[in-house]
């Protein structure tokens, strides 16, 4: 059971906007920044969003992050087939003194 | 650009020690935190622990009694040792740099615990 809760799956058609939620608690998302990672099949995860809503260089602006209270969300607009991947949220948990991850959301582009 | 490469045995016997090394190329190991993260087949990500280039460490409490992470700045490497392994420790092990998130990852190395 992961400390951060994500839906196991999400889907959308090309061009659509999809959102993936990540729910935590006051000891992690409530007091720490949220990070999002994209893992394409058979590859290492890639940093997609840092500090809640910042995009690393090279990440398209179709990807955006937000945080409110103890929840966060990753939005992908203009969905493309190459966005089909697993997405993980992460945050530092100050009570456990550990980086915690969500269980991952498998995004399918129909 | 900075690249990370894990190396070590792909097969470890139960009760023995898993040892992996991460080599940092294209940049210095100094001034950053470096983490190990693992992913069992078909499952999610688990943070194992980090080391600062100066040698200070922080481990996941669930693994703390069995984990040691060390750094060799002269070789631009950091290493993971996990003692008393069981089949539940079978996973892809990633080394990462922690700079505003885990911004650089190695390709990962699969370690299987089996007799």
Number of alpha- plus pi-helical segments of chain A: 0
Question: In which range does the helix fraction of chain A lie?
Answer: under 10%
Strand coverage percent of chain A: over 45%
Assign the structural class of chain B, choosing from mainly alpha, mainly beta, alpha/beta, alpha+beta, or little secondary structure.
Answer: mainly beta
How much helix, percentage-wise, in residues of chain B?
under 10%
Radius of gyration of chain B, taken over Cα atoms and rounded to an integer in Å? 13 Å
What is the rounded distance between the termini of chain B? 39 Å
Low-confidence stretches of chain B: none
Which class do the helix and strand fractions of chain A yield?
A: mainly beta
Sheet bearing the most strands of chain A, described? Answer: 6 strands, mixed
**Biggest interface between chains:** A-B, 23 and 17 residues
Overall pLDDT of chain B, averaged? 96
Explained architecture:
The complex is a heterodimer of chains A (110) and B (115). By secondary structure, chain A is mainly β. Chain A is 0% helix and 45% strand. Chain A contains no helices and nine strands. Chain A has strands at 9-12, 18-23, 34-39, 46-49, 63-68, 71-76, 85-93, 98-101, 105-109. In chain A, the strands form two sheets. In chain A, strands 1, 3, 4, 7, 8 and 9 form a six-stranded mixed sheet that branches. In chain A, a hairpin with a 2-residue loop joins strand 5 (63-68) and strand 6. Chain A is globular. Chain A starts with 8 loop residues before the first strand and ends with a strand. With 115 residues, chain B is an all-beta fold. Chain B has strands at residues 3-7, 11-12, 18-25, 33-39, 46-52, 57-59, 67-72, 77-82, 91-98, 102-105, 109-113. In chain B, strands 2, 4, 5, 6, 9, 10 and 11 form a seven-stranded mixed sheet that branches. In chain B, strands 1-3-8-7 form a four-stranded antiparallel sheet, with no helix packed on it. The mean pLDDT of chain B is 96.
């Amino acid at each position: 059971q992961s400390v951060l809760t994500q839906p196991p799956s999400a889907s959308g058609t090309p061009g659509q906007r999809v959102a993936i939620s990540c729910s935590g608690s006051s000891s992690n998302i409530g007091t720490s920044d949220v990070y999002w990672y994209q893992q394409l099949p058979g590859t290492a995860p890639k940093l997609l969003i840092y500090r809640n809503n910042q995009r690393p260089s090279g990440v398209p602006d179709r990807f955006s992050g937000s945080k409110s209270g103890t929840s966060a969300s990753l939005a992908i607009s203009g969905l493309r087939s190459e966005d089909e991947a697993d997405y993980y949220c992460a945050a530092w948990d100050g009570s456990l003194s550990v980086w915690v991850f969500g269980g991952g959301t498998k995004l399918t582009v129909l | 650009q900075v690249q990370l490469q894990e190396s070590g045995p792909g097969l470890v016997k139960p009760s023995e020690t898993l040892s992996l090394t991460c080599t940092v190329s294209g940049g210095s190991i100094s001034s950053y935190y470096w983490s190990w993260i693992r992913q069992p087949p078909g499952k999610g990500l688990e943070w194992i622990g980090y080391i600062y280039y100066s040698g200070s460490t922080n481990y996941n409490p669930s693994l703390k009694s069995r984990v040691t992470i060390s750094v060799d700045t002269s070789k631009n490497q950091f290493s993971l040792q996990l003692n008393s392994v069981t089949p539940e420790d079978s996973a892809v092990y990633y080394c990462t740099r922690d700079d505003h998130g885990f911004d650089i990852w190695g390709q990962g190395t699969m370690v299987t615990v089996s007799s």
